[in-house]
Design a protein that fits this description.
The complex is a heterodimer.
Chain A lengths: L1 E12 L3 E12 L3 E5 L6 H8 L7 E6 L2 E2 L7 H6 L1 E4 L11 H11 L5 H14 L15 H13 L5 E5 L7 H16 L3 E5 L3 H7 L2 E6 L2 E6 L1 H6 L4 H10 L1
Parallel strand pairs in A: 3-8, 3-9, 6-7, 7-8
Antiparallel strand pairs in A: 1-2, 1-4, 4-5, 9-10
Chain B lengths: L4 H4 L17 H4 L2 H19 L1 H10 L1 H28 L4 H15 L3 H16 L12 H26 L3 H9 L4 H31 L11 H12 L2 H30 L8
The chains are: A alpha/beta, B mainly alpha.
C-alpha cells in the first residue's frame, strides 16, 4: 500500500534554479527508502517536499489519503503523522529534553501531562538515553541530541519518519549510535525515507535506494543491485568518487 | 595507591592567581576605569551637596528629576508597545502589515531625533488629537514630548524586536512546524522565548539612550532637569555650578539604571543549569 506519493514534482527556487525536474516517487507503508546523490542534486528538496516544508512549484504530494498540495488540506495534522529529523538536530535550546519531547504531544496531540510524560520516557528509553530527560540540549553530545530529536518525532507516533542527512553534522564517533537507532526503527517496520551519505546504512536497512542527480531520479532499485551493478553512468560515476 | 583523579593523571591544581605567571599582573586586570569614574562621581557629588553655590543649583534642578523620570518611564512603556506591534509587523507574513511597519520605521529613521520630536509635537499631535475628540490645548507639553520620544524609540525598538526574532535560526521554526505545531504556536512556544533573551541587551541600551535623550525635550520647554538648568543659568549666571550639578545628576541616573537593567538581564537569562 502506497503511503507517500510524489507525482510530477518540479521545484524552482526563484527564476533561475530548477532544483527538481519531474520527480515521481511512491513509498509503500513499511518500506525503507534511502535517497542518495551528489550534493546539490536536490535529494533534500525531495524529502522536504514530502512534508511541504518546501512547496513544490508544480506537481502533487499525496500522503495517507490526503493531497498535501491542495490548499484545503490541514497540513499541521498531516505533519503530526510524518516525523522529520534534521541534519542540525534543531532541538529547542530553551527547553529541557523532556520538554522538547512533550511540547507537541501536549499542544497538538492534546495529551494529558501524565500521558505525555510516560510517552516521553518510553521514547527516550527507545533511543537509549532515558537518564537525560532533565538535561538541556547543550549539555548533550551531538549524537545524543540527534537521538533526542528522533525521540521527539517518535513521540507523536507518526506513520512515516523522514531523515534529512541525520548524521552529516556529527563527529565520526557518534555516527554509529544514531544509525543504530535508525536500524532498530527500520527493523520494527517503521516507514522511513532517509537522505544520507552513509552507504553502509543504505545497504543494511534500505528496501530501495533512489539515486537523484540534477533534480531527477536517475536510477533506483534494490540496494545490492544499485551499489554493485549500477546501470546509469552518472550513478557509477558517483560511486567511483565516494567509495 | 592513588587517591584522587588529579594524582592519578599527574595533574596539579592551579596555583592562586598571584603566583601564576601565565596571567597578566593584577594591575593590568584591575578595573581602574571604575575607580576613576567613581572618583569623578564622588567629587561632583561633594560639590553638589556641600558647596553652597552648587547646592543652590541642585535645589533648583531637583524638582525636574521626577519629570525626567516620569517622561522616560512613560515613553519607554509606550515605545515598547509600539516596538512590539511594529516589530511583529516587520516579520509578518501579511504584506500590508509588513509594508506599513517598514514605512513607519524608515520614516522615523530618516529624520534626526530633534527635528522628529518637533515634527511629532507640532504636526502629528495637533493633527491626530481631533480624531479622538481632543483639542490641541488638551494635550500638555509634557505629553507631546512623551509622544515624540515614544514614537521615535518605537521605531528603533521595532528593529530590535525584528532582529531578535530573526536571530532565532530558521531551523527552529521548521522543527516546530514539522511536529505539526501551527505557525503561531511555534512562534509563541519556540521562537519568542529564544528571541527575548537576544533582545534584552539592545533594549536596555535603548532604555538608557532614552533617559539621555529626554534632555532634548528641554527644547519643547518641558521642565525636566536640562530645561531647569538652562533657566537657572539664565537667572543666576552660574553656568559652571549648574552644569556640574546637571552632569552629576545624569551620570548617577544612568549608572543606576544600567546596574538595575544588568541585574534584570541576568535574572531573565538565568538557567536552571549553569551558564550557556
Amino acid at each position: 500500500m502506497t503511503i507517500i506519493s510524489l507525482t510530477g514534482i518540479h521545484k524552482w527556487f526563484g527564476d533561475s534554479v530548477h532544483a527538481l525536474r519531474g520527480i515521481d516517487l511512491d513509498v509503500a507503508a513499511g518500506e525503507v527508502v534511502v535517497i542518495i546523490g551528489p550534493s546539490g542534486s536536490g535529494k533534500s528538496t525531495v524529502l522536504r517536499c514530502m512534508n511541504m516544508l518546501e512547496k513544490p512549484t508544480t506537481g502533487s504530494v499525496f500522503f495517507d489519503g490526503m493531497t498535501l498540495t491542495d490548499k484545503g488540506t490541514d497540513i499541521n495534522f498531516a505533519r503530526t503523522e510524518m516525523g522529520m529529523v534534521f541534519q542540525s538536530f534543531n532541538l529547542f535550546p530553551h527547553l529541557s529534553v523532556g520538554q522538547n519531547i512533550t511540547l507537541a504531544q501536549r499542544k497538538v496531540r492534546g495529551r494529558s501531562k501524565a500521558e505525555a510524560r510516560s510517552m516521553t520516557e518510553r521514547q527516550l528509553a527507545r533511543v537509549g538515553i532515558p537518564e537525560k530527560i532533565d538535561a538541556y540540549p547543550r549539555q548533550l553530545s551531538g549524537g545524543q541530541q540527534q537521538r533526542v530529536a528522533i525521540a521527539r518525532s517518535l513521540a507523536m507516533e507518526p506513520k512515516v519518519m523522514l531523515f534529512d542527512e541525520p548524521t552529516s553534522a556529527l563527529d565520526p564517533e557518534m555516527i554509529k549510535e544514531v544509525l543504530d537507532v535508525m536500524l532498530h526503527l527500520a527493523s520494527e517496520g517503521m516507514t522511513m525515507v532517509v537522505v544520507t551519505h552513509e552507504m553502509g546504512f543504505a545497504r543494511a536497512a534500505a528496501d530501495r535506494v533512489v539515486f537523484v542527480d540534477e533534480g531527477m531520479i536517475v536510477e533506483q532499485g534494490d540496494p545490492d543491485e544499485v551499489f554493485d551493478n549500477p546501470k546509469n553512468d552518472r550513478t557509477r560515476d558517483f560511486f567511483d568518487k565516494i567509495l | 595507591m592513588v587517591s584522587t583523579e588529579h594524582e592519578r593523571w599527574g595533574m596539579i591544581t592551579p596555583a592562586p592567581p598571584e603566583e601564576r605567571d601565565d596571567l597578566d599582573p593584577w594591575w593590568d586586570r584591575f578595573p581602574w576605569w571604575a575607580v576613576m569614574l567613581g572618583s569623578i562621581i564622588v567629587l561632583f557629588g561633594y560639590y553638589t551637596f556641600f558647596v553652597e553655590s552648587y547646592n543652590d543649583a541642585w535645589h533648583f534642578i531637583k524638582p525636574g528629576i521626577q519629570v525626567t523620570v516620569r517622561i522616560t518611564l512613560w515613553a519607554f512603556l509606550i515605545s515598547m508597545i509600539i516596538g512590539l506591534i511594529v516589530g511583529f509587523g516587520r516579520v509578518s507574513r501579511n504584506p500590508i502589515l509588513r509594508n506599513l511597519s517598514r514605512t513607519y520605521v524608515e520614516f522615523i529613521r530618516g529624520v534626526p531625533t530633534l527635528p522628529m520630536l518637533f515634527f511629532i509635537a507640532f504636526v502629528i499631535v495637533p493633527t491626530v488629537a481631533p480624531w479622538f475628540g481632543l483639542t490641541n490645548k488638551d494635550i500638555t507639553k509634557e505629553w507631546r514630548g512623551i509622544a515624540g520620544l515614544a514614537l521615535v524609540y518605537g521605531g528603533y525598538i521595532a528593529e530590535v524586536v525584528r532582529g531578535g526574532i530573526q536571530s532565532v535560526e530558521h531551523g527552529q521554526m521548521e522543527a516546530g512546524r514539522s511536529l505539526g505545531l501551527s505557525y503561531g504556536l511555534t512562534m509563541r512556544s519556540v521562537v519568542l522565548p529564544q528571541a527575548i533573551r537576544n533582545v534584552l541587551p539592545p533594549l536596555a541600551n535603548d532604555f538608557i539612550a532614552m533617559l539621555k535623550d529626554s534632555s532634548l525635550l528641554s527644547l519643547l520647554a518641558i521642565n525636566e532637569i536640562t530645561q531647569l538648568s538652562k533657566l537657572y543659568v539664565n537667572t543666576s549666571f552660574r553656568p559652571r555650578e549648574t552644569y556640574v550639578v546637571l552632569t552629576f545628576t545624569y551620570i548617577v541616573m544612568v549608572v543606576a539604571l544600567s546596574l538595575v537593567l544588568h541585574r534584570f538581564e541576568r535574572w531573565m537569562s538565568r538557567d536552571k543549569v549553569g551558564a550557556r
